[in-house]
Amino acid sequence: MLVLGIETSCDETAASVVRDGKTILSNVVYSQVVHNKYWGVVPELASREHMKTIVPIVRGALGEAKVALEKVDGVAVTYGPGLVGSLLIGLSFAKSLSYSLRIPLIGINHIEGHIFANFLENLQLEPPFVCLVISGGHSNLIYVADKGEYELLGRTRDDAAGEAFDKVAKVLDLGYPGGPIIDKVSKEGKADFVRFPRAYLEEGSFDFSFSGLKTAVAIYVSRLSQEKLERHRIDIAASFQEAIVEVLVDKGIKAALLKKAKNIALAGGVARNSRLRDRVESEAKKHDLKVFYPSPILCTDNAAMIASAGDFRLSRGERSSFDLNAIPYAKLC
Predict the structure, then answer these.
(1) Tens digits of per-residue pLDDT, 98-155?
(2) Do 276 and 266 contact (CB within 8 A), yes or no?
(3) Hey, which CATH number is domain 127-293, 3.30.420.40, 3.40.50.880, 3.40.50.450, 3.40.190.10?
(4) How far is CA 190 from CA 28, 157, 169, 195, 292, in A?
(5) From the CB of residue 101, how many other CB atoms can be counted at a distance below 10 Å?
(6) Mean pLDDT throughout 219-223?
(7) pTM for the whole thing?
(8) Axis crossing angle, helix 161-171 with helix 226-258, rounded to the nearest 10
């Protein structure tokens, strides 16, 4: 089955053609740069960019896959969570394709899409497993009992991990988006330069909270002279990164042990972080756990993951009606 995936939940316009839920024939992603000067995504600008680019991006995906539009068997599209204006662009476009081509439409939860990104490359990965879905808008710890069967173990109570990276990068005047920049400069920094707080919350909780960590960095920086800030900027970045990674890894490992899962998966934009990958693999070995994560392009928002999840649900006979609406705060479970 050939599934066309469409993803417009935030500031990436993406389209992909996937065969049988596993083989990526194309995966075209346009990342909007208009937001960089604002140090964050501006929802209205994001919607306008999606309107400008959705047609050429879909055409590009079909062309790269060498698949005629009439040969597509179904269209999968993100309906939430995300920015409502952005979601509506992709959803409306997918509905028009479904109606005109008389092919089934299936709405996909963005978080489920990130989980399915792991199935595209890690063919040996099978449920059950624990998945850390961590990005600019989400920090979720999910138990995947089976494909389509999820249990939310923990989530962010305030800033998501990726959001904290962006805000701290701004405090340190490193640039936007903050995640890749902090990851890069931290390789040259001292991760033990500052012992920033780790928010573990109540005993046994798998929820996350990174707002306090962000504030702690801001307060620390505000008390430095310009000369000392310049001298230790990357050390502060590395120390911040270490604090956020330590909590993510610790809770992920404990969740896997609690659920007696043998595998841990990472997903979402922050899953690209090299320190996170190194740390989780190191800790997982101590407990005989295997770690899986997608390649960098499949960590960030993309349509191949949406098409893969769409193939799974379409194969089960699921369909979405044309009254499917964008749900900005859609829950996975």
Answers:
(1) 999 999 999 999 999 999 999 999 989 999 999 999 998 889 999 999 999 999 999 9
(2) yes
(3) 3.30.420.40
(4) 37, 29, 16, 11, 27
(5) 16
(6) 97
(7) 0.95
(8) 170
